[in-house]
Input
Amino acid sequence: MSDGRSDMQNADGSRPWTFYAFAAFFGLFVLFLYGPMIVIYILSFQGPNGGMTFPLNGVSLHWFVALVSQTRVGDIAGSFTRSIALAAIVAVVTVLIAVLAGLAFRRPFRGSAFAFYLAIASLIMPGLFVGLGIALAFRLLGLPTAWLSSGLGAQLTWTLPFGLLIMFAVLGRFNRSYEEAAIDLGATNWQKLKEVTLPMLAPGIIGVVLFGFTLSYDEIARTALAAGAKNTLPLEIWAMTTNVTSPTLYAVGAVTTIVSFFVIVVALTSIGAIQSRRSRRSST
Amino acid sequence: MTSIEQAAPWPEEDRPVENTGERASWFQVAPLVIVLSLFFGLPMIVVLVVSFFDFDRTDIIPAFILDNYVELFTREVTLRLYASSLKFAVMVWLVTLLLGFNIAYFLVFHVRSLLMQIGLFLVCTVPFLTSNIIRMISWIPFLGRNGIFNQSLQGAGITSKPLEFLLFSDFAVVVAYVHLFTLFMVVPIFNSMARIDKSLLEASRDAGAGRVRTVFEIVLPLSKTGIALGSIFVVTLVMGDSFVVRTMSGGQSASVVSALQNEVAALQYPPAAASAVIMVVIVTLMVAGILRLVDVRKELAR
Output
């Protein structure tokens, strides 16, 4: 680097034209990601006589009310409760199992390749096949499929590999000398885990909980054939797409996205709080 | 996927001798292996077994027959379905690769502050954590006959009557796939690029290479692990999907898996299982092909 010049910076330190081209491109991509979503949130406030697209025919909460009052729409309230409960259980199970498994991979052990590839295969296997296999296995065993048994298992085949990959990313950046220091100071293995390792991993662990919850809450391919008689919310919405042609569909979309956003914001705020407390501590 | 490298299984010769550490690891990894064996390994074996079963209108009948496979291979529609699935996979792969590479490039090499980088990365990630079905549905008011796109085209006088091909077509399917899956390309490529030493780019520039040449001869080869991983994600997601192709094509297009879903709905489990087995073989071959082109494990061990 002779003159401090690179592709990313002009000689005078200003941005090259490519930066602005890329920034515009990125902006368009963000618009592509969020634009359609924002439109359906707006359209969910469509007036009672409005249709599935613009123009807005007045502004009302009509379609949100229809969501809970019209039985024709389906069992939104029931499926919503089931989905929230299932997502909470999946999040807890995922964080327990994935964190533990992540710790296992910090030392070499026989069978690590098997465990690793089992998780990767589970991740990239088409979801519907996993659900089909679970449904068939339950059938052969004479067990009924239900959202809390087969449905839960089906979702774990999706959230556990994700949780494991997040743990790898977190542990990859983990500085082991803190743990060694704890041992040098006379900590037992359990104290080391409880007082040093887990608190240091806290932001990543919250990330695993976030992924476990949201991936379960929105899962459809694996759950479709394994959920049994009672639908989860995404399955209920999927059924709606074929027979509901009113803005109710958008209203349910708005509600479910608000739930997702709420969970994301809570998770990110807690991670942010931990990080800022840490940086305050280390600076004093 | 910085991660996989730390986790990359150890080569045979580095195998540890048995010790307490190994036993602790087994103990820690056991719940994962048990749950995945029960709900993923075992069901996949069941699918393989059932693919040889017989069936009647209401039930599956244990047997060992090859009829399901014979029928699958002799039906004319099989080839059409695979052609359709492959067509979507290739188109979506190309578009997501182009988008993903450029987005990752912008985030890694053009965004200077770490906080800004994290912020923009999150902006890309958040939609991934919201409902896929809703994100898919959200294209309906855009692409419909009287949708926003057609309204603005007609309003601007570009077209006189609405374009019919926008919604419930292959075009809509590809748009939805790209919308849903681009992130799976961005994240691995971002991880690969983030590990490129920036002084390499400066060296390339100093040695007289232009921007384009630097991208093709430095950045691209050093990102190929991420490109390979992203491609595996996108290709397997598209090949394994049935929900998007059903909704967005309005039932006009089919894929291998959406046809399989119809068989399941008709309680024809053994043919569906046979179809799943063949699909898994083909997807595995595609993944193996990608891994042959790019030795992900060797690259990750760098």
About this structure: Residues 76-110 of chain B form the longest helix (35 residues). Chain B touches chain A through 105 residues (CB under 8 Å). Residues 106 and 112 of chain B are 10 Å apart (CA to CA).
